[in-house]
Each structure stands twice: as C-alpha cells, then as structure tokens.
TrEMBL record, chain A:
<dbReference type="InterPro" id="IPR026091">
    <property type="entry name" value="HPS4"/>
</dbReference>
<dbReference type="Pfam" id="PF19031">
    <property type="entry name" value="Intu_longin_1"/>
</dbReference>
<feature type="domain" description="CCZ1/INTU/HPS4 third Longin">
    <location>
        <begin position="540"/>
        <end position="637"/>
    </location>
</feature>
<protein>
    <recommendedName>
        <fullName>Hermansky-Pudlak syndrome 4 protein</fullName>
    </recommendedName>
</protein>
<feature type="domain" description="CCZ1/INTU/HSP4 first Longin">
    <location>
        <begin position="13"/>
        <end position="118"/>
    </location>
</feature>
<dbReference type="InterPro" id="IPR043989">
    <property type="entry name" value="CCZ1/INTU/HSP4_longin_3"/>
</dbReference>
<dbReference type="InterPro" id="IPR043987">
    <property type="entry name" value="CCZ1/INTU/HSP4_longin_1"/>
</dbReference>
<feature type="region of interest" description="Disordered">
    <location>
        <begin position="268"/>
        <end position="323"/>
    </location>
</feature>
<feature type="region of interest" description="Disordered">
    <location>
        <begin position="431"/>
        <end position="474"/>
    </location>
</feature>
Automatic annotation (TrEMBL), chain B:
<dbReference type="InterPro" id="IPR001806">
    <property type="entry name" value="Small_GTPase"/>
</dbReference>
<dbReference type="InterPro" id="IPR027417">
    <property type="entry name" value="P-loop_NTPase"/>
</dbReference>
<keyword id="KW-0968">Cytoplasmic vesicle</keyword>
<dbReference type="InterPro" id="IPR005225">
    <property type="entry name" value="Small_GTP-bd"/>
</dbReference>
<keyword id="KW-0449">Lipoprotein</keyword>
<comment type="similarity">
    <text>Belongs to the small GTPase superfamily. Rab family.</text>
</comment>
<keyword id="KW-0342">GTP-binding</keyword>
<keyword id="KW-0378">Hydrolase</keyword>
<dbReference type="GO" id="GO:0005886">
    <property type="term" value="C:plasma membrane"/>
</dbReference>
Amino acid sequence: MAEISVADSRRCNYFFLYDGSKVKGEGDSTRAGICYFYPEETTVDKQELLCGQLAGVSRCISELSSSPVRLLRLRRSKFAIRMKDDFLWSLGCPVEIPDVSICDFLDRLINLFCFYNGPIRKSYQIYSQEDLAVRWAQYLSHLQGGSTELHHIFSCLSTIDTTHIDPLLLLKAALILQACQRCPPVLAGCILYRGRVVSTQMTPDLTVKVMVHEMETYHQDQDHHFLQDQRHDGLSSSGSSGSITSSSPVTFTTVYLTAPELHNLLSAPVASRSQSTQSTPKEVNRARKIRQLSRTLSDTPPSDPSEPGSTHNAPLALHCPSSLHPATRDELLFSPIPSSHTPGPLSFSPIKGAPGLSGLSLSNGKLSPDVEGGFRGGSHNKKGVSGEAGVVRGWPTENDDFQQHSNGHNGGAVELAALTSEALLLREQNSPEHGGQTTGNDGDQEGFGETEGHRGKAQCVDTGDVPASPSENPSDASLIPMALYQHRVRGLVLTLLVENHFHSDTAATEEVYHSSLASLNGLEAHLSTMAPAGAAPMGPYTFAHYDCIQKTITTNLSGTPGGAQERSFVRATSLLHSHFCNTEALQEVIVRSAGAAVYGSRTVAQETYFLQQGGTLRNSGIPNHQDSAFSLPTKARHRLLKHGVNLF
Amino acid sequence: MTSKSSLLKVILLGDGGVGKSSLMNRYVTNKFDTHLFHTIGVEFLNKELEVDGHTVTLQIWDTAGQERFRSLRTPFYRGSDCCLLTFSVDDNQSFLNLSNWKKEFAYYADVKEPEKFPFVVLGNKLDVPERQVSGEDARQWCRENGGHPYFETSAKDSTNVAAAFEEAVRRVLAQEDRGEHLIPTDTVDLHRKPRSGPSSCC
C-alpha cells in the first residue's frame, strides 16, 4: 500500500464504491463487491487489493471504536471513507489536501450521485454497473474540473465575476427567477452563464448539484447532440435566436431531493431574501404552493414494494391516488417515498419530531463543539502546525443514532421519513423555526464531524461521527423525486427545481417558458457583450476572501498556475483553512516562511487570507516589534476595503 | 418564397411604462400580463411572419424606458432595421419625449441618414379612457418629423398591434428595395446588417 503513487496534481487519486453485501462468505471474491473503481484502467488485482484492505480496515476500526471511520491516513496518501449500510465509498488523495476538503469532496460526490440517480441500492438494481460507472466518472470530473485550486480548497461555487458586470443585471437575473416562482410547481431556480452562477435561490450545496447537468447539456449542445424533449418541440418555434437549431432548448431531468433539502426550499423566505418583490401576490402564491405540495406528497404512494424491509401500511396507503398521471407513474415506481412503520399521518407530529431533533443538537449542537473547540484551540496553538495527537474518538450518543440509521428502516430512518408528507406542513405551521434548526444542526454536525475527522491522527486511523446528518448521507427513504427544468439560451441556462408533475402540465411549462424567454434572451445578450474579466491587476498583495454562507470566493489571484509566491499563498491558505476548520476558537493566524508571511482571519461568516508582496521581511527569528509580519493585519484591513472586504 | 427567411431587427423605444414590453408580448405570445416589472436593460423575442409574400423573422428588441437604464440599453441600438417610437396616449410627457428618443436612437445606432431611416410611431394604451394626446397631435408630429406612419394601439385588448409590427416590416423591406437599386451587388455595405439568407428581392 505504501507504494501508492501520488504522481499528478489531481485531487482524487483513487475512488471506489464497494458493496460489502456481495462479499460475505470466505469464498466470495473481492471483485464481486467492487461497484466502481477509479481510475478505471487500474488492474483488477490492484483494485481488489485496495478495496479489500481498506474495507477490512474500515470495518475493523469502526467495530473496535463503535464509530464509523471518516479518514484513513497512510504515509503518502489518505482516504476519506463513508460507510452506509453495506456500502463503502473511499476517495484517495495526496496528503497535502486538507482533510476537510477531501471529506467534503467525497460527501459531495455521493450526494451528487444520489441527486441524479436516487438511492444507491436502487440505482444499482435499475441501471447497469457500466452505465453508473459513466456517471461516477462524470461527477468526479465535474467536481475536479474547471475552477482554480482555491475553489477546490474551499469547495466553493464558481460565480460570475461580479466586478465586471452591471449590478442591475444581477437584479434582472433575480427577477427572472422570481417571475418563474409565480408558477406554483416551481420551487426555486438558478441562472448560470458559461458554467458560472449568476443568481441562485438555492443553497450552495444544491446549486452545485444542479450545475452538473448544466455542464452536461452544455457540452451536448456544443456537439449538436442536444437532448430533445418531444413535447417541447412546439415551444421552440418561437425560439430564442435566429440561428437556433430545430432542437428544443428545454429539457427535463428527474432528480432526488433529501427531505431536509426539500423542507428548506419550501420554508425559505424567498420574498424576504430577494431584493424587490411584489409582496401581496407572492404571499398568496406561497400559501398556495405549500398547500399544493402537501397534497402532492401525500398523493404519492407511501412505499415501494421492491424496497427490502418495507412494509405496506394501510393508513398511508389510503392516500394513494387512484389515478396517477401516466407520465409520472414510472418515476413513482422508482420513487422512494418513505417506507414508514409509523401508523398514520397524524403521528408525524412536531412533538414527536422534537426529541429526535433536540437529541441531535445536544450531541452535535453548538455547546460541546465550542467547548471542545476552545480546548483544542489552545493545545493546538502550542503544538503549532503539526499537532498530531494520537486520538481515536468515538461518540457514543452519536453512534447509537447511527446504528439506528444504518439499521435501515427502523428507528432513525423513520424519523427521516417523518419529515416528508404532512409533517412538512405541520412543522411549517407550528414551529417555523424548526426548519432552520434542522438544517442548522446538519451544518453543525457536518462541521463537527469533519473537525473530529482530522483531529485524531492516530497512526493511520481517524474516526468521527459520520452519521447523524441526514442531508449528508441521504437515507434511502428520504429521497423525494423532483424534476429539473432547464432552458438554455446559448451560454445562459435557467434551471428550475420543479415538482414532478410540472413536466406533464403543458400550460404551466409554456407559461414559464414564455414568461422568461424574452428576459433570458436579453440577459444573455447583455452578458455576452460584457468585457471579459481578464486578469485583475495584481496589486502588491494577494488575497482570498471566502464567504462561508454563500460558499463563494473573491480573490485577486489569477486562475492560471502562478509563480512561487502564488503557489505558496495557495498552500498557506489551504493549511490555514484546515486549521480554522479544526479549531473553532481560532480567529487570526499568521504563517510565515523565510520569504513570505500570510495573514488569515475568520469569523463565522467568512475567511480571509492576505499576503503582502515585496518589501523586505524583517525577522530575525526572535520576536521583534519591528517585524513586518505584525503589520499584516492592519495592511490587510486597509487594502481589502476597496475589494469590499471589511475586516473590522 | 425564400427557403431561409431574413432576420429583421426592430427596436421599441419610449418612456418607461408606456407599454413596450406589453406590446412585444402581445404580438409574439398573444398574452398580456398586468404585473410586469420594469424591463432592465434589453430583452428580445423572435417571431416569424409573412408580409406581402416575404417570410421574415422579426427580432423585436424591447428596451428599458427609465433613464437609469440608459447605459444598459444604448449599446443594443446598433444594427436595428427599424425603430418603433412608442408613447402612451394617456401620458402627454411620453409624447413630448418622442423627439428625444429619436435623437438618442440616431446617435447610438449611428444611423448615417436619419431622415431616411424607417421609424414607426405607436400611441399605446388606447383602451384607457382618459386621453392626454389627441390623434391629430400625434399625426401632426409624425408629418413634421419625416412622415412616419402612426398607429394607435392597445396591448391590453390587442388593437392594431399586429398591424403596427407588419407596417414596420413593410417599411424595412421597402427601404431595402430602394437600397438594392443603388448598391452594386459586388460591394459590401458595412453599415448594414448582413442578412442571414439570400435576400428575398422582387
């Protein structure tokens, strides 16, 4: 294993999905369990070696520590691990990549797969291994491709360069999205231009997922293999440009949302988030939308007969519609609406939900990580950059929770299931703050999990709390099928998350299409005439500003691999980001080499990194008040103001 | 009948709120939305139609009327084949501003001979009972400013909308015919938009 090479600069050296259920007995060959292996040209023997060893080690450690494994650290590479039911995902990368980034990368990859293909077990029952291999490869290359090293470190969104476009155009984009939401089945949308976000109503995580399909269609479009949607041929007659081909610019794709994602979309105060609204019709629409959604969800069949371990239960089955639209039927077949053991809709009460939630926030919430963080922060600082405490951690409370989840359709899973259907509505009415809390907790758990993840560096094993976040590892039961409506106007794409029945509602699709077409044409015309960003004039300093909420980055670093100074800036940023993630109490750091010093500062909402170039560094190795590094914070504050970054 | 229709760019100009977007939407999608927001910058829609045996694709550019959007809209004046100057019959100021719009267009579109450029004047909101601009005043302005055709329209109840756009197409085609006699076929006219297909000449 030690000879695993870290040859190139790819973030991902290895990725595999291993299905432990296929390899139970002594005689079963390891290769039977390998669902996907990247790089695909790896010899089967080597695949077996890696999968077998890592699966074995992960299983062993998780059983010993009764806590799932998050990260395995070898001498020259490390592997982020996810285990769920019998499946094990592993992503290998060079050690230089921060633990947070690699764990986040793997989560995103898995979530992406589930977003487009539904629950993992089912997708492998429905599609061939070869087909899904193509998908994995596509998602891998999407997540690795395109943007700069800094984007990878922070796992952030590629946004359009707002410094070069008129802010009125951003307003225009936001208004287009709002206008689309006047149609009730439209939940939220985003507008992308040449693979970058212009405006989005979705969370950053959801936006990233949606972007994959955009890239896909973009490339297909360029190759003139545009996906055709027969029903929409009529629409394109009033097509968007004079030179457009006869193919339709509109596509539909089935996607799967986790219950928290859906809940978030429905409870998000869209009106207050946007810059200008006509409030009254909006309110009416919203109310209507919620009603309609609850109806839609309870209309769908409660369980899928092919789901192992699921039981049909009568009360829910009563809600099963007698006449489903034919177009949605096959999707529903595939539809993983919760296989719940809970008797009926009434028991999905918020009161029942509450203990679970508060339980989660106790074991994962702000309190303990803060204390932990403060504690660790102290010790960390003393130990400096390479604090390697040999710690193997397990979180018993957490772990119990996880057991429930992984038991499949009992316990925890039921609670997830309860998030759908009427529960959504009830929670909406009774405790609006609940929704925010749920997702808030997810965030915390995730952050916390990762914190734990790279905390312990016990020889080669890290364990942390994987499990609790339902949004992170979508339980099979919690994925709700939705549709993605995409309308392309050359480099510009309007993407809308819509309810599944939208596709078959010709009047609604035409309304959305026609009401947005002119504005999309115009926006595209504006954006295409904007001067290309070009390399921003490099000042005597380099900075990177990361917005943790919107997951966007602002930097004056050019996208191309730069000089030594730029590379050391990126390295320092990567290092500091990792430390900030590890150490919640850490707020300001200066790291320095003989030739350069980088200042890092963070709050809950942002992280900022600053390198002053030129000038002689006066440092003698002994603390000295004339040391130029000490003036970095002031310089950073001063310089970055004109970039709209306020460090006060 | 030509196999490939030519693309004609017409542009709607006029004060904010006179109904430019509504006119475009009424003509292309036959819909009327009372809740339209201000247009920001420019928007456009294509429509294929046949006028006097010529099939053309009309590209209708709708612009923002508000002064603050000026810098966004003016770059898109270039290449226009016809300009539809729009005012609202219930708003005298929008009528008085027509000359300013004409000037702004001529300046940014860089029209060589503004007096020969096809303009069409539209008095919209005919459905509104309280008129401030009489038809006679409007016609007089059109006569005095180069003999532009004048249409009184209502995007709301669809009055005269199609007729106005068709007249715009006729004006452009007539202009082209005249141009074709003057320009030798082996030269390239740099000031005119290249047509996408073979010209549907008579």
